[in-house]
Specification:
By secondary structure, this protein is mainly beta. The protein contains no helices and twelve strands. The chain has a single domain, classed as Peptide methionine sulfoxide reductase (Metal Binding Protein, Guanine Nucleotide Exchange Factor, Chain A, Beta Complex), CATH 2.170.150. Helix content is 0%, strand content 44%. This is peptide-methionine (R)-S-oxide reductase. InterPro entries: Met_Sox_Rdtase_MsrB_dom, MsrB_Met_sulfoxide_reductase, Mss4-like_sf.
Amino acid sequence: MSFCSWGGEKYQNHFDAGIYVCSQCGHELFNSVSKFKHSSPWPAFTDTVHPDSVSKRPEGSHAYKVSCSKCDNGLGHEFLKDGPDGNSRFCIFSSALEFKKGKKEKKGDVKH
């Protein structure tokens, strides 16, 4: 697994409707419905598009390193109990993502 550089703030304040996909293989990772504003310079999400969108490797007792489940591209981290609802927060490198504009329907459902 290789991890992308953090990639700046490209998607930190990006809230258009659509799907964030892996920059290496195009695999669907996050729906814009699950994106939220966070103080870190990385885009933050509460959930993945599909339960198997990412692979996780433990990193300490409260975090996982996450990578694309299709090509193993390093995406960032999942922090447990650190999201806006007390659940997980995915903190993802902008450089690991590409955005595909679509229409927000509901969580897990974006029409292109």
